[in-house]
Request: fold
Amino acid sequence: MNITHSDAVVLERPFQAKYRQIALTEITPDSIVCRTTMSAISSGTDMKTWRGQQHPEQCWYPLVPGYENAGVIEYIGPDAKTELRVGDRVMINECRQFGDVCAAWGGSVKYAIKNSVTAPSPFDYVVKIPDNVSDRDAVLAYLACVPLKGAKRFKFNGKEDILVIGAGMIGISAVQILKILNPEARVICIDKSPIRCEIARHYADVVFLADGSEIKKIEELTGGKKADKLMECSGNAAVVGTLHKYIKDGGWAHDDEPAHIHLQGDYPETIVLDSWHRWFVKNCQITMSCALAPTNKEQILSWMAEGKFCTKHLPTEIWPVEKCHEAFEYKAKSGEDVFKVLLEWV
Reply:
């Protein structure tokens, strides 16, 4: 196969997207070349990139954003170590190097050359999509891998109360994953948006609107104990400093497990912990995780194929990729009322 250029979504600068050609890197003997059929604009990483909020050592303009894309394998090099075949539908995801633009993170490209140089991370490999999983769901599967990595930090204990803050794509995914990993747990979800709370009711055991009364309601629900575990998925840095209010006391005896907070958000602003003594006496465990881990894509796709992980209640819209600039503007305006703007590639 001989291909040197490809159509792509390019952010020329903050707030300016263009659908145009870019130069690709060389196709090496270990390359797998994939053609994108559908991609997405992520609410976190891509919109931060759109607003110019990424760290300059990570990316610079012009750049190709995105990491949520699915498509078809067009070519497999003779040295590629894979059991995949030409024509397989696959999750494509990151392509971290191009010929003349920055890759950040390079998923919004029609032809992606995946090899040891352009896809070096341990989770950059392509994964076959089950026949009964749509391209739409395969695109949405990627972001669900992020809270799956985070949920694996928890040590589950049967009947316990797990609180998820934030009912966006990450939060709803976290709710479903936590219920799969610990079916005995009561999963509570809170969000400040009534619309997202209605969506969350399809997935969580209990949903509260974050209107100032949610802490009292959680106390009443749990008999005054509050949450055993908490996964913060709002992406709001101001929320992080208040998380001690939602969790149980404990951890003072050897057999008394403390509360566990996992930070799942990508926070563009500074995090400030309020009233340190209130945090200090909580005696809790705090963890965080970034991106995903190997085998997570296979696991989410498997759960989708088995009907355990459902996306049908999530608000998404499909736009032609040629209107990428308008799609970014629309996503910025609609916020989390639309979880995903999906881009359809011809």
